[in-house]
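Database export, one record per block. Field names are fixed; values are copied verbatim from the stored entry.
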Amino acid sequence: MTEDALLAAIRAAPHDDGPRLVYADWLMARGDVRGELVSLEVSDRRGALGPAGRVHLQALVAAHGYPHPELPPDPVAQLPWHGGGTHPTQYGLTHEGHHWYVRQRYGFTIDLDGVEIVDADVDWEDWNHLSPAETNVVLTVLTEAILAGDPPGALQAAFDALEPPAHPAYHAGRHPLVSAVEARDYERYCALLAAIREDRTGG
């Protein structure tokens, strides 16, 4: 069976673990780390993952992100980002041979191939407090502009059109750096970290 056929089976029954586990076995037989990720994620959702398994899952997710075999590829939805240090959100996107790097704090800065092309202040009271969902909106707007080939001025205009965050939740420096976790998965990644802390402290 081909990978496309396995993925089609998952997408036809996204809530059925059977096709997902068949795909996991197929990947692992080929030495693909995504297979172990899919298998561990299924066990975690079933509540069948012990402390050692959660630690291993966390390490794999931090390095590779959560797998989404039930979804077709979507470069706009896949927004790997990490926070902490001097900038709450840092995000990189490679598109058509160029690398874009976005940093946000009280404003936002965009580099293209290592050269700063946008450095803008934003009239928000506190840009340090963005929930994962709000961050995903910001990055989606910027990603869509980049993929559309918009010039720097259009990137800034798109960003300026965003409303200030309404539900502050994210605080810089309170979570470890994460390079491969997508914004849409950030909350469940934090839940996994919390479960690991409980395993270690006994509650």
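Remark 1: Confidence is low (pLDDT under 50) at residues 165-178.
Remark 2: Strands lie at 81-84, 87-95, 98-104, 107-112, 115-121.
End of record.
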